[in-house]
Design brief:
This protein is α/β, with parallel strands linked by helices and 372 residues long. It contains 15 helices and 13 strands. It has a 7-stranded parallel beta sheet, with helices on both faces. A 6-stranded parallel beta sheet has the order 10-9-8-11-12-13, sandwiched between helices. Helix 3 packs across helix 5 and helix 8 crosses helix 13. Bound molecules: ligand GMT.
Amino acid sequence: MKIGIVLYPTFGGSGVVATELGKELALKGHEVHFITYSFPVRLGSFNTNVYYHEVAVNDYPLFDYPPYELVLSSKLVDVVEHEKLDILHVHYAIPHASAAYMARSILKKKGINIPYITTLHGTDITLVGKDPSFESVITFAINESDAVTAVSESLRQDTYDSFKIDNGIQVIPNFIRSELYNHPENKELRSKYAEENERIICHISNFRPVKRIEDILHVFKKVNEEIPSKLLLVGDGPERFRLEALCRELKICGRVKYLGKLRDTSEILSISDLYMLTSEKESFGVSALEAMASGVPVISTNTGGLPEVNICGESGYTSDVGDIEDMAKNALKILRDQNEIDAFGARAREIAQRFDIAEILPQYEALYESLI
Ligand code: GMT
């Protein structure tokens, strides 16, 4: 099949999942065309069967706001027509679903029928999408989609609760390629961050307020009072300044390391004893899945789709949003005993297998085939 993938090219979860999906489809022999405003960060240098089409918005003095959505729609028309695509798969509803709707309408006038699938990732529904200024267009573009998928049962339900949706929504969860997370522990790397007697706690995100990373710092302080530990924060974003200030206030600066936007997180996960995700909202939590695939137990909130991934009492523990005491208690329960770390880690790895690409890719392929 010839598949057009529309995505955000950044480190955000939706962009990462869309890029990895495209790479996997290309490996299976499909022709994949990525369409977005810059080269997707997770695409790497060269992949057979993969093409990239840049959406370049010209700057005119008239525009306070460059009309990205219009340029994207025109680009979709062009790519579908000239590359003879079979299907468009847009990731993140805003503004990709409405751009795809526009492109599909234009192409219809030209006698070309192309279906589009919208995959809802989370904040397009739970945060941004709930903004009334987007509501009518999002509802329309989701309803008009030839198929809609959501990355968790929770997000599917949230979508029905928040919008007047009369379209079906199929749940196709996030995925990982398990074999990429099978690193043997790199003792040399570990020794760069922690002493022999210290535990390593890790968190990966785009440092947005929704992640509540300040809760991780509070939990870490409590854990550290009982078990000497280091906290590795991977990623970057708007909360960074506030977090550094809080580290100073809590007097934990020397124990918290900011590692920046690592392209490949699997090595850092392989030296971690515990992963933490304290989000206020999280439709799935692909970073928790990556940790689990690496055999790392997870302490997370029980919001959104997280309990569908991190099974409480098996792969780690889940707590109410903001319940620092409970999260610290659970983290200590695991970190006190190497046997607990190993047992939770092994179960986490087993559960992560349910989300292996081998299970998930055929679901997308079947969906494409049903529409073409
Ligand atoms: O929250 C992020 O890290 C980025 C965000 C996005 O919109 O790109 O991620 C969302 O999509 C991911 C892939 O489907 C999910 O795993 C994340 O849970 C989801 N984030 C939220 O719902 C906050």
